[in-house]
């Protein structure tokens, strides 16, 4: 028994002592990694990160199979890729540094408020969107209604004007009414609320798109190519209603078809707290009344 305890003691002697400073460093590094992951999730970098993980998995597979040419190419392209990322995400990096300078870190760290949206939108919200789309279609009022899902659209929201109103057909119709201050651009819907209007969407550069489609439809396709959102489009020329999803534009013939298409993608409430990273986004949301 004494010999056994002596062995255990000799093993423990090799374990470095953890000091208070070590714990403090672990806390700081964990917080920084958490904030970086939050920033990645809330920007276009989240989509890029998923692509990067696929490349990493491919690289590991090539290493295991000893595909030396492929691993050599990836190793030498890594530095160029890093420089390219800094250039591509220069606006996001600058915005992240500006936000870091304006934060109260202690308050943010111990905040227990809900940090995600969207909570799942309800059947009532779906019905209001469908009703508004077809009411506007009857009078040929153009509209762009973007329904946020998993990909946060905060960057798009910043290009518009904050609304923060419960989704109703009357509100949507009034926003897109001709010659009103908010009619130009898109509205963003998160959960059961209209968060912003007059938002600018990225235009699709897909050359196979029909020449008959105007800027509104290209914008709907553009946002569907860069996020998992659903975008309802009402044509100002024909009054037709279409739905953009995953880079595809589908014409919807009737209200029930549109209602089913949106309802199938309906999310669930995932309210959390600050420390639920993948089920919580770095943004406070008000719940629908």
From TrEMBL:
One Pfam annotation reads: DAC
Query: What are the protein's UniProt keywords?
Result: ATP-binding, Cell membrane, Membrane, Nucleotide-binding, Nucleotidyltransferase, Transferase, Transmembrane, Transmembrane helix
Q: Name one GO molecular function term.
A: diadenylate cyclase activity
Reactions catalysed, as given in the entry: 2 ATP = 3',3'-c-di-AMP + 2 diphosphate
DAC domain spans which residues?
Answer: 90-255
EC number(s) per UniProt? 2.7.7.85
- The source's superkingdom equals Bacteria
Instruction: Provide the transmembrane region boundaries.
Output: 20-40, 47-64, 70-89
Signal peptide start and end residues: none
**Function noted in UniProt:** Catalyzes the condensation of 2 ATP molecules into cyclic di-AMP (c-di-AMP), a second messenger used to regulate differing processes in different bacteria.
What protein family is recorded? Belongs to the adenylate cyclase family. DacA/CdaA subfamily.
Q: What NCBIfam families does UniProt report for this protein, alphabetically?
A: diadenylate cyclase CdaA (TIGR00159)
What assembly does the database describe for this protein?
Answer: Probably a homodimer.
Q: What is this protein called?
A: Diadenylate cyclase
């Amino acid at each position: 028994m004494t010999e056994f305890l002596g062995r255990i003691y000799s093993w423990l002697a090799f374990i470095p002592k953890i000091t208070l400073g070590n714990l403090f460093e672990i806390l700081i590094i964990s917080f920084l990694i958490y904030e970086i992951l939050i920033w990645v999730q809330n920007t276009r970098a989240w989509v890029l990160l998923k692509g990067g993980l696929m490349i990493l998995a491919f690289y590991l597979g090539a290493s295991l199979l000893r595909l030396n040419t492929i691993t050599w190419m990836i190793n030498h392209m890594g530095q160029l890729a890093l420089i390219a990322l800094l250039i591509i995400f220069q606006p996001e990096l600058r915005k992240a540094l500006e936000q870091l300078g304006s934060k109260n870190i202690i308050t943010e760290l111990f905040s227990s408020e809900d940090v995600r949206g969207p909570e799942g939108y309800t059947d009532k919200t779906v019905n209001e969107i469908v009703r508004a789309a077809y009411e506007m279609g009857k009078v040929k009022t153009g509209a762009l209604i973007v329904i946020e899902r998993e990909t946060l659209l905060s960057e798009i929201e910043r290009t518009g004007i904050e609304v923060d109103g419960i989704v109703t057909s009357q509100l949507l119709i009034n926003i897109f009414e001709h010659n009103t201050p908010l009619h130009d651009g898109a509205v963003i819907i998160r959960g059961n609320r209209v968060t912003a209007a007059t938002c600018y969407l990225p235009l699709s550069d897909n050359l196979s798109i029909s020449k008959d489609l105007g800027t509104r439809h290209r914008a709907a396709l553009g946002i569907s190519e860069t996020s998992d959102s659903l975008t309802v489009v009402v044509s100002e020329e024909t009054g037709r209603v279409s739905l953009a999803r995953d880079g595809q534009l589908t014409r919807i013939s009737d209200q029930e078809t549109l209602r089913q298409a949106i309802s199938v993608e309906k999310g669930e409430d995932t309210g959390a707290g600050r420390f639920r990273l993948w089920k919580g986004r770095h943004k406070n949301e008000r719940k629908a009344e």
